[in-house]
Design brief:
The structure is a homodimer. The first copy, chain A, is an alpha+beta fold. Chain A folds into 3 domains: 95 residues, Rossmann fold; 61 residues, Dna Ligase, domain 1 (2-Layer Sandwich); 166 residues, ATP-grasp fold, B domain (D-amino Acid Aminotransferase, Chain A, domain 1), CATH 3.30.470.20. In chain A, 28% of the residues lie in helices and 27% in strands. The first copy, chain A, is built from 11 helices and 17 strands. In chain A, the strands form 3 sheets. In chain A, strands 9, 10, 11, 12, 13, 14, 15, 16 and 17 form a 9-stranded antiparallel β-sheet that branches. Chain A has a 4-stranded parallel β-sheet with strand order 3-2-1-4, with helices on both faces. In chain A, helix 1 crosses helix 10. The longest helix of chain A is centred in the C-terminal third of the chain and has 18 residues.
């Protein structure tokens, strides 16, 4: 079965792969619209399990569990990009899976993704395929230092990345990256990091949220601000890039495109996330429709909403022990506190976020 | 155990009696804050069951089920005012129940409620106790026609109400009201119906949402608009009335006070709802905090939020077959669609609502 896009009735059940905070917030958005959800996730402590009646706690390779899951839902979507290809294929043979799992093959591999973006005529940092350590030295010569060596697969929040500075030994860097196929990317002296969260509906229309400016700390998103401080021309260009990517994929749902803004105003695409994205959490309180509802509308075959922003908005992640700050934020007028129901506090773990609408 | 107000950790579990749309929206608000919920309701089709992992489907008189429920939760609250007194007492002996169930004794009985309000020096329509049909004729003489005969208990959405017009036979009216203890109320030629949704926190502070203007159709709320078209003086007086009532009750949580505004500016209290209220649904999209979150904050012992309104807001109930209009509303920019996940469409049944923020 190809990823057809059915138009769901409000009584329909949406299957969600992945039980983290993104899955949880997708469930909450679906519930507002009357949908039922069924969450499939391997971890019994999945935050999404708390907010849904039907859950399957099983491994992504458990075909019996996947089969039962598929027969219980009307459409399947996912909260994360590392859905195993076999899982997606197994499900797609039984029930519509949106966005089309074929897209995962592109976004799960940094090299394929970069080639895809470059093939659309959209600028990226200079990059080189590093299939083996032998190729790394020449690539560093070509691209120059500083650069970043990244594993092609399974990287997020800075995992699987090694900085190539002056004096970094290529062989040591290769080993540090796990001795697996990599991509070498030129280090980009960016002015700002921005992202566009965009939704494409089943009829092919695209709605972009306003360009968001992001600050990372230890490779983890710490703060998003919207609107980003860039010219209207650059903002329009950023939205256009996201729209081109969504259209080229024939995407149905929400995706995020992370970009670097250079001093000269050039925008380089850094990464595509084929899912709702942390830099879109501000939409929960700062816009007339959230990224989560927009995604649910798209995969349900419902019309996208036109997003209207309530003002300037700031989103701050509560990471690790910072979650304790929720008490303070509860007392700040106009600030919305979101906690993800995670009991174990670990360094670098996203425990919640707060959103503040600052007025016009 | 008296209704002490513990300060909950975000990992705590909130027990909710009642599984309708109000319970459902309370669960969704609690989930945003990281809380787990356990919903207790007798109807297996309860809309709240879809959005929560732990449910008990049992009768309110099932003490075994209530006992298990009480031992699984850190605090109990309710979505409706007709919680049986025995149920509330049984639970309150085992776990904090908020708001204090003693308040239900007042609000479950129109006569006791009216006497309570009048005892606070707050105006109401003229009313008389009608314990038996023999008292009705004299009371009609005294109060005048038109008037309304209402059962003292279990009335909502116009149920249990009989209009006493010119020519209405008192005995027939008594029979139509079910031949049970009633209250006779003078008909009030009101200019507007308004309500105040107010929260009182465990520390005793009260936060009122802006006064809402309500239009009913066939005794069921159809439209709410905020701010209500009344003078700042009248609005302040309406909020003051709600605050006096909340304070007198020592209330913890959200309550709603429905009032009639007379042509001369006088405000008469019509009804108190000791729970979140349909006329506060606009707060989900039209304010920086919703009535549901405010209630959860209060029963969790967390500080109340200062509600900031996003603009003029309109809320329209989707009743019975009107639910089909959701398709049209999905395309109206700035309009949020809420569906309650009810499968059976019945005349007069509240199926969902839409909220529109209209700007300043």
């Amino acid at each position: 079965m190809t990823a057809v896009s059915p138009v769901l009735d409000p009584e329909a059940t949406i299957g969600i792969l992945g039980g983290g905070q993104l899955g949880r917030m997708l469930v909450l958005a679906a519930a507002r619209l009357g949908f039922k959800c069924h969450v499939f996730a391997p971890n019994p402590d999945s935050p999404a399990f708390d907010v849904v009646h039907r859950v399957t706690c099983a491994d992504y390779t458990d075909t019996e569990a996947l089969d039962r899951f598929a027969s219980d839902v009307d459409v399947v979507t996912y909260e994360f990009e590392n859905v195993p290809a076999e899982t997606a294929a197994f499900l797609a043979a039984r029930v519509p899976v949106l966005p089309d799992p074929a897209i995962l093959a592109t976004t799960q591999d940094r090299l394929v993704e970069k080639n895809f973006v470059a093939g659309l005529g959209i600028p990226t940092a200079a990059f080189a395929d590093i299939p083996s350590p032998g190729k790394l030295k020449a690539a560093i010569e070509h691209i120059g230092r500083p650069a970043v060596l990244k594993t092609r697969r399974f990287g997020y929040d800075g995992k699987g990345q090694v900085a190539i500075k002056n004096g970094t030994d290529p062989d040591a860097a290769w080993r540090e990256a796990g001795g697996q196929p990599c991509i070498l990317e030129a280090f980009v002296p960016f002015e700002r990091e921005v992202s566009v969260v965009a939704a494409r509906g089943h009829a092919g229309g695209v709605e972009c949220f306003d360009v968001t400016e992001n600050e990372h700390r230890d490779h983890i998103l710490k703060t998003s601000r919207v609107p980003a401080a860039l010219s209207e021309r650059d903002a329009a260009q950023a939205r256009r890039i996201a729209e081109i990517i969504a259209q080229k994929f024939g995407y149905v749902g929400v995706l995020a495109v992370e970009m670097f803004l250079l001093r000269e105003g050039e925008l380089l695409v850094n990464e595509i996330a084929p899912r709702v994205h942390n830099s879109g959490h501000w939409t929960l309180d700062g816009a007339s429709v959230s990224q989560f509802e927009q995604h649910i509308r798209a995969v349900a075959g419902w019309p996208l909403a036109k997003p209207l922003r309530h003002g300037r908005v700031e989103m701050i992640n509560l990471i690790g022990r910072e979650v304790e700050d929720y008490r303070r934020y509860l007392n700040v007028p106009g600030t919305a506190v979101h906690l993800y129901g995670k009991t174990a506090v670990r360094p670098g773990r996203k425990m919640g976020h707060v959103t503040r609408v600052i007025g016009e």
